[in-house]
């Protein structure tokens, strides 16, 4: 009889070796097969009070889906999870499990927690294969685009990122007709246009959107609300409620000399250019991948966006890629696993250093002037405040600088929506967790409310808003519900 796997050791999740993966955009983490997934799920203690579910910002039904996977019923597990989270093949790839569900698993106290993220991805792929014929099937038809394609329904959702998709899922499951409008050409928001292919393949995002389309959700891409039409136009078209899920995609810069030089770009522009080229691979355009063969690249910042930009630069041929951060390694906002993968791929890190100016010649970047930093008292975020060390300047040659220093909310939609209250950084102000705004029949959620955050937080906000909007519309139909908002 085969020896039983110790309960505290997880079934390893396969990864492609660094030397191979750094030359292409194919996914780094691979998925469990049926036997591995069942073995991993069978380690679950099935706790009476599942701490993993409390640790998940969307409170996914983790205990129940793991029990189904343990019995070899992955497709049923996917159906169960989709009722709560419309994009498990995405959250199963990008969530910070170690700080959320897996961080709360009691097995982690003596050994390795259940690989909840890997199981979520596995069951989503089995479910998508059952529904669509393949876990990453291309959408059956192009996404409709342009204002003329907008068909009125019960609810208009503005933004097809995770918050918008979760709201649309919650509403359409309750029998309401939903139209999702989005300015970009493919649904998915940052999952399609920011997070790189080797972390989250575009086809996985498209497959989840296609599943939602087959559930009855209408998508109209290439429509910018606030430019092509406004929120009042949506009500005039007879939508009964609107959910704003426009994200936080306004890239911040540093305001230091030389940012205007050719060769200084934001991570948003850099990653979007690569994403558009990758999407065009699938027949949606003709953009070409940027070429960085032999270039020296400096990435400023150390969050997830910085890791994605640095690892993308390596895949585009840059030989020397250095991430600079003004605080210490332990203060980096990136997931430790992302940093480890970047290091394996040859990305270098330098801590306690910040750029002072970018130096150019004839309008083109040549170098970065750096200053060493030391750490002082904690700031409002609880992290020590970095301050420059006197007379510690140095100059580093660079061909490309990528600024990954944060995102704000774009102001054009709030600016064209009279009465919509916004707060610091342009964030839309809401009055409760369901996202009631200052405007009647208008809800908001995701990054446009919280500021740059995570996929699962956006999913939770969208789901709560969808449930609240459905309850409001049911009450309004019965003549009971007052309109939330002002
Ligand atoms: C490079 C990068 C890497 C990341 N990596 C991770 C990660 O590993 N794990 C993780 O959990 N999170 C990650 N995040 C964060 C995560 O992607 C976001 O928190 C999440 O996508 C927010 O979802 P959202 O629905 O609020 O907005 P978004 O995903 O930003 O979607 C907003 C959508 O609204 C549309 N829109 C905006 N304005 C309008 C308008 N006026 N009219 C019509 N449409 C409009 C946009 O086109 C977009 O499609 C990353 C973010 C970036 C930028």
From TrEMBL:
It holds the Pfam family Pyr_redox_2. Residues 154-462 form the FAD/NAD(P)-binding domain. InterPro entries: DPD_II, FAD/NAD-bd_sf, FAD/NAD-binding_dom, Helical_ferredxn. Residues 21-126 form the Dihydroprymidine dehydrogenase domain. PANTHER family: GLUTAMATE SYNTHASE [NADPH] SMALL CHAIN, GLUTAMATE SYNTHASE [NADPH] SMALL CHAIN-RELATED. This is NAD(P)-dependent oxidoreductase. It comes from Geochorda subterranea. The lineage of its organism: Bacteria, Bacillati, Bacillota, Limnochordia, Limnochordales.
């Amino acid at each position: 009889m085969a020896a039983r796997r110790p309960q505290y050791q997880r079934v390893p999740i396969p990864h492609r070796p660094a030397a191979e993966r750094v030359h292409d955009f194919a996914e780094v983490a691979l998925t469990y097969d049926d036997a591995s997934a069942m073995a991993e799920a069978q380690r679950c203690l099935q706790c009476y009070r599942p701490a993993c579910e409390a640790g998940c910002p969307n409170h996914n039904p983790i205990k129940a889906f793991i029990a189904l996977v343990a019995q070899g019923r992955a497709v049923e597990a996917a159906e169960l999870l989709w009722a709560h989270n419309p994009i498990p093949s995405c959250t199963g790839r990008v969530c910070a499990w170690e700080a959320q569900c897996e961080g709360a698993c009691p097995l982690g106290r003596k050994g390795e927690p259940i690989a909840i993220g890997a199981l979520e991805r596995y069951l989503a792929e089995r479910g998508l294969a059952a529904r669509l014929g393949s876990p990453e099937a291309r959408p059956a038809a192009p996404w409709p685009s342009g204002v003329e394609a907008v068909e009125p329904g019960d609810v208009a959702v503005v933004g097809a990122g995770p918050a918008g998709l979760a709201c649309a899922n919650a509403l359409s499951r309750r029998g309401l007709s939903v139209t999702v409008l989005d300015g970009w050409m493919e649904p998915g928001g940052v999952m399609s246009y920011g997070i790189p292919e080797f972390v989250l393949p575009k086809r996985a995002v498209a497959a989840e959107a296609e599943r939602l389309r087959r559930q009855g959700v209408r998508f109209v891409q290439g429509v910018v609300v606030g430019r092509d039409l406004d929120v009042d136009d949506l009500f005039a078209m007879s939508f009964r409620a609107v959910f704003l899920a426009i994200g936080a995609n306004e890239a911040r810069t540093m305001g230091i000399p030389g940012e205007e030089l050719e060769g200084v770009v934001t991570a948003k522009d850099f990653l979007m250019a690569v994403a558009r080229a990758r999407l065009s691979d699938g027949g949606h355009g003709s953009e070409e991948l940027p070429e960085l063969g032999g270039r020296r690249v400096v990435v400023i910042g150390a969050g997830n966006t910085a890791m994605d930009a640095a690892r993308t630069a390596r895949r585009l041929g840059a030989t020397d890629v250095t991430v600079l951060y003004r605080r210490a390694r332990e203060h980096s906002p990136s997931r430790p696993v992302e940093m480890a993968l970047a290091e394996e791929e040859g990305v270098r890190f330098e801590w306690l250093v910040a750029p002072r100016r970018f130096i150019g010649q004839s309008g083109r970047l040549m170098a970065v002037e750096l200053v060493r930093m030391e750490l002082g008292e904690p700031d409002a975020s609880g992290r020590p405040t970095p301050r420059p060390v006197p007379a510690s300047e140095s100059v580093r040659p660079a061909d490309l600088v990528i600024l990954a220093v944060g995102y704000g909310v774009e102001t054009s939609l709030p600016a064209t929506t009279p009465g919509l209250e916004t707060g610091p950084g342009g964030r839309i102000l809401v009055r409760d967790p369901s996202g009631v705004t200052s405007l009647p029949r208008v809800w908001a959620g995701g990054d446009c409310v919280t500021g740059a955050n995570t996929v699962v937080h956006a999913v939770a906000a969208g789901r709560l808003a969808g449930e609240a909007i459905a309850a409001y519309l049911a009450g309004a139909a019965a003549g009971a519900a007052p309109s939330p908002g002002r």
